[in-house]
Amino acid sequence: MSDRGLAMNVLVRPSAPGGGLAAHLALLKPRVMSLVVFTGLVGLVLAPGVMDPGMALLALVCIAIGAGASGAINMWYDADIDARMLRTCDRPIPRGRVRPGSALAMGCVLAVASVLAMAWLVNLPAAGLLAGTIAFYVFVYTIWLKRRTPQNIVIGGAAGAFPPMIGWAAATGEVDPASLALFAIIFIWTPPHFWSLALYRAEDYRHVGVPMLPVVAGKAVTRRQILIYSLLLVPVSLLPVALGVCAAIYAAGAALLGLGFLVCAVRVWRAADGDEGPARQMFGFSILYLFALFALMLGERLIAVWS
After folding, report:
1. pLDDT tens-digit series, residues 90-128
2. CATH class of this structure's domain 26-175
3. Which end of the chain is more exposed for a tag (fewer CB within 10 A), N or C?
4. What torsion, rounded to 10 degrees, do the Cα atoms 146, 149, 152, 155 define?
5. Which residues contact 157 (CB under 8 A, 6 or more apart)?
6. With a cut of 50, which residues of the chain have pLDDT below it?
7. Cα separations (Å) of 286 from 7, 121, 204, 261, 262?
8. 174 to 65, 77, 89, 153, 301: CA distances (angstroms)
9. How far is CA 131 from CA 94, 191, 213, in A?
10. CB 94 within 8 A of CB 82
């Protein structure tokens, strides 16, 4: 059966039993949240000065809650298309485990609480960035861009790039070029990451009318754009070295990881129509790449502190 047929079938799948705590936690997109918190932690640790551990923990909790709130509101707004996509049809709202109104209320309460707590317990600049991140993800990406333009991922990717800046601002009370470099890495990484997913989920997106690049411009154009952004990502990933935030360990690791990323991108670019293997491999490697890149930053800084 075709992907389109399967996607139509999910409309008549029976609802799961009532969700409870597990279903509501799933609304927070915990896997996405974990990467957000990790990049926020790295921004906090790389920032100059020493932050009180308790204050640092509070800042990370606020970042986590804000990210989860964004995810819950996103699932509420996208429940209609989530129910018709193979990748998302098992989410709590389409499966009937959480009522849409409950998801929206939880998301709004957590969003407000995370920003107020950041402002009261940490500082106003970090709270302002957190509020802007939530607003950008909900209103700019989810509501405005996602269903209207194939540039949804390019512009909307800014929302996922803010967490290290928030961590940096939590530690220093300001934004500077080094934190913008961390933002730039995630911002440039996001298009090839999501477009590789969109390549092998194109029918899913076409079925629900989301204008992802493979649907609107075709897979050949998407593969070329993945390669272009991947070529840009390698020098951008070395900006922290140029700005003096990272040193030799990170530089060597980033260069090797960048080489691996480029190899994946070239394989995607050269793949024949119908060959989903390279795109699937690149999507998986892209997640490992970003985690490893920020882990290198964190590890190098911790080694410097301990020595």
Report:
1. 999 999 999 999 999 999 999 999 999 999 999 999 999
2. mainly alpha
3. C
4. -130
5. 186, 187, 190, 191, 194
6. 1-17
7. 26, 34, 21, 7, 10
8. 21, 33, 41, 27, 20
9. 28, 23, 29
10. yes
